[in-house]
Amino acid sequence: MNENTASKKALSLVLLVAGVVLMALALWMDFSKNYIVVNIGFKVALRGLFLVLGALMILAGLYLTPSVMHHRTIINIIFLFPLLFTFAVTVIVPMCVGIFYSFTDWNGVTYTKMVGFENYAAMFKEAPFIWSLLLTVLFVVVNMILVNVVAFLLALLCTTKLKGIGFFRAAYFLPNLIGGIVLGYVWQFIFSNVLTQLLSSPYSWLAKTNTAFIAIIIVYVWQYAGYIMLIYINGLATVPKDVLEAAQIDGASEIKTLFQIKIPMIAATFTICTFLTLTSAFKQFDVNLALTNGVGTVRGFMGQRLSNGTQMIALNIYNTAFARDMYGFAQAKAILFFIILACVSLVQVRISNKREVEM
Amino acid sequence: MKMKTSRAVLLTIIAIIIAAYVLVPFVLVVINSFKTQAAIVQNPVSAAGASFSQFVQNLNAVVNNKNFVFWRAFGCSAVVTVISLVLLAVFGGMAAWVICRNKTRWSTVIYMIFISSMIIPFQVVMLPLIATFREVGRFVGLGMNGTLPGLIFAYCGFGGAMTVFILTGFIKGIPYELEEAAAIDGCSPEGTFFRIIFPLLKPTIVTVTILNGMWIWNDYLLPSILLGQSNPNKTLPVAVQAFVGSFVKSWDMILTAALLAMIPMIIVFLLAQKHIMDGMVQGAIK
User: Fold this and answer.
1) ipTM value for the complex
2) How far apart are CA B224 and CA B234, in angstroms?
3) Which end of chain B has fewer CB atoms < 10 Å from its terminal CB, N or C?
């Protein structure tokens, strides 16, 4: 037993020292611009290999440290490390860096100078951006109402005792499984080929800004309502049976039961569903890209003729960065987008919570 | 309480009409991938001109197309999704357990950061993410942009918050006495987690995996900017986008490609329909 501990201690020490040496070596190689590349199945820089191996060795050495007292702490650190590390590199660091870049003339690689609030000021003078912002707000409001109403009605339909109700539920949910890009192209086909032929009209809905906007809403409701319906079904199932029976015995009509018992009792479900539809409609990108790519003519908005009539804010940010190469500007728009989204969701949750308490 | 027959019939008819409306796009995709471009343009709704040999011909053209390369895209999507899901489940479980069972100031801070990060839309970190990955990749000497491991790394980062959030909610409900008993019996903390807690997490991990899986499999934006449109390794949505870009209005090809992209998800749904529908609801409620 003693020998075992001793050998463990030695191994842990060796691993720790080797790990630190390897990482130090990797850092030194990095700063001395050493770019040796080795081939281990795939090509990888030697210093990167050293860095990763060193880190793994230190973790292993820590794990083998024969300390009863600190073992739990060491395990905690090792357990938290992988997720925290990936999270920091993909979310925290880019978020902080992004806030900084929004104040510069960043071009995606470097920046030459700080520009203060210039980016933020410029976007309010840019007519296409204001249009996208307003369009997104309209889209969110219309969608939030439509998706919730449609989904709730579907949920009521799917909680009746019809035959084959399981099939209907699954069928209504089906569009939600497929990604927005694929669905967008399928609907593009339907609007530009199938509907024009059925209605025997020479113009596709997607050709005009107004109808193209309606088209996006149709596709979005079609895709999303099935999912929200499932949440409503789940909510309706929580309404106690005895309450409904009592209402029936007291002679309450079905409409009355719906408005005075069911809807108030699933207020929490309404909160969840409005929150989900709100945030997901705000972030809408895939369908927008595949269905219209934001194209559409608008005459005389802020004294300008716009060509981005159906472009939502997420697509606007994307195009500002990748099509126009204005990364700093796009980043500033993204930060504004984040602030709006955060405020709207906070307000929405607060209002709903208040109402729930009152009821 | 029995519904009146006439009413039941009426409701059934309504349900069928809605189902038809919801399913028509799928039917159209199937019908038209059995036809030639000329037949599609002539009449997109009828089955006239549809033949199995034409379907095989379309399939061959699509699968071997150099912009689509279906099997490669399918393989990339599968590898990225499966590895990300496994890593998220294991790392997420580990992190959630530590956060839940160590009530220190640090664990609360970490938990709060995770939760508040869930509101960040992807567009905000999209551009700096490329820059950060480029810098980290240059520093470490491993490619992060344009590689599948880099993409998996990003999914672990982005999926982490929700995974931890759902799993901590569940771990809170597991009695702590279980872990104390294990410790008294001489079980190490890591052993306690992997032998006792992790197996108990199974139902919640199914939920998390379904939520993350639907998102990762269908995600377009992250792989498209991290991998790039010209990368030979593309996930399915990116491949569809690249493919459509190369075939303007060639609907026989596009719809066949769409069909191919839909089929894997629909098969999974048919196999695990109940799990998926339950999982999506559970994830939303929590």
Assistant:
1) 0.88
2) 8
3) N
